[in-house]
Amino acid sequence: MKILIVGGGMGGTILGNNLARRLAPEMRAGKVQLKMLSASDKHMYQPGLLYLALGRMTPDELYRDQVSLLEPGIDFEVDPVVSFELDHNQVKTKSGKTHGYDILVIATGSRPVPEMIPGLAENAETFYTEETALKMFKRLQAFQGGRVVIAVGVPHKCPMAPLEITFMLHDYFKDRGIRDKVELHYTYPVGRVHSLENVAKWAAPEFDRLGITYETLFNMKEVDGANKVVKTEEGSEAKYDLLITIPAHKGMEVIESNKLGAGGFIPTDKTKLTMEGRTNVYVIGDTTNIPISKAGSTVHYQVETLGENLAAIVKLGSPVREHDGKVFCFIECGKDRATYATFNYTVPPDPKPPTRAVHWFKMAYNKLYWTSARGLL
Q1: If one looks up domain 2-109+252-326 in CATH, what number appears?
Q2: Residue 250 has pLDDT above 80, yes or no
Q3: Whole-angstrom Cα distance, residue 164 to residue 159?
Q4: Measured CA angle at 108 (ends 106, 113), to 5 deg
Q5: Do 2-109+252-326 and 113-249 have matching folds?
Q6: For residue 105, which of 243, 203, 228, 8 has the smallest C-alpha distance?
């Protein structure tokens, strides 16, 4: 049996390692072949970009060689897929090779698209790539005071990112001794400060306590860089001296170009994790259209289900469990306090008051990520 994983991010990496351990006897006997195709030989710890933008991590801390994270027996190639030929159980890659499969797992991730809003990419700071995070770090260093507006597009990677950057900016400016010269103004597209109701109920009083103003039903339409104004679909405007954005995301271009899903997100069965209309194609992580958080923990829990199911298909002939949609998200609430939200398809989150202990747990996880990527945590 040939199992092909397309994508070497967190989802693909954890799944590959999970399967390599579960199916080690079958792989040694030549009954199972496990291949991974990736666009890069490097693996990035994406949550670290938030800390890079605030000068709390350096670029070299974000990367490892992908090969160093993979179990022996995984056939890894840096050769991005350009064509999915699902009716023929094969894909074609940039180099011109064709790879057949019996089971395909698509874990290509997502990408920020600030260019969807006129003027946003040119006038706002963001932290979703190394380049833009470093640019934001330098801009923050030079900033001496004024109105900082946080503007959010949807959908986006990491559901807590808008809250985290806002709380962390509060402490950043406080440490620099200029918090009294800075007005922090948070905006959000729906009618509360976060899409998850219980998270919103927790966060709004925190904003009030810290003197952070906020505005809801704020959907960006365009950014007027000359006059430093964000205009919304609702007809309101927000003036800024510094604009920080969590831009809307799309799935990867290869998903759109192959017409596998609108916006690059593949229609996915939320409990089976199969691509709709396909029994041997699975989708995980940011690539799915499942309306839950696009976050590392989301795919981690998906992999626990899928790894067990794919191994069971090989060993027993059928899957053995359904996915419950579990998510666990840390919420940094400044430089030294944090809380978390855990939830699934049926149980909503219930964030607790922030503590130093949870913050240090998050800091520890930043270091343990590489163990997690190996599927050992």
Answers
A1: 3.50.50.60
A2: yes
A3: 10
A4: 140
A5: yes
A6: 8
